[in-house]
Amino acid sequence: MSTMPGHAIVAGALLASVSGLGGSLISAAQAPPTVEQRVVALKQSIAESQARLRRYEWIETTIINVKGEEKDRKQQRCYYGVDGTLQKVMLSEEKATPPGGGRLKRHIVANKTADMKEYMESAANLIHRYVPPSPADIDSAKKREKVALRPGAGGRVRLEFTDYLQQGDLMAVDVDASANALLGLNVNTYLEKAEDAVTLKVEFAALPDGASYNPQITLDAQAKQITVVIQNSGHRPAAQ
Fold first, then answer.
1. By CB count within 10 A, which of 3, 61, 219, 227 is most buried?
2. CATH code for the structural domain at 34-237
3. CA gap 68, 70 in Å, rounded
4. Element (H or E) spanning 140, and its range?
């Protein structure tokens, strides 16, 4: 039987075309996610975890240290109300014994205590602005092109948000690339002035249903020598 060169040429061209297409598909499949895709996945992970957390109640322990000395410790029961807002019920509070002395000394101590309380309220508000990250703030940073994607070791990736809430701040979110699970969050920011630097270190863990929560949040205000540690534990289904 005679061969058909024309058909062979066409078949070869088709084979080369299919091979090339297959290579392109493989390359596309192996292409790492873009910043946009990672941002979408991050928002999805946060939203899913927040929805699952609404089924739980837990104990929040807040510890305040000033110059390395514990000044205040309180525990609150936390749960979500029917309107979706986080509710907190005080369980216990322990404050350091104020020093003795004359009226002037007590007045000075009282003023310092009031100043520290105001500062701590500002610090607490600051924590809640970053934790959990707001989808709207994430979108704002993305639109302003203030997001960078950094590869990490062990299957991690890091999303870095610059000028996230304030000029000069930085929020870095570490994510398990395959499971799309939050692993850690670190923030460098400030309260009122840039020299009043504050750092946030947020740890993440998973509950049995996959909900992500923060076993510990640490705020360090070096200028004031104040450290605030918030611990969340004892998660259980919320009472109906």
1. 219
2. 2.50.20
3. 7
4. helix 135-143
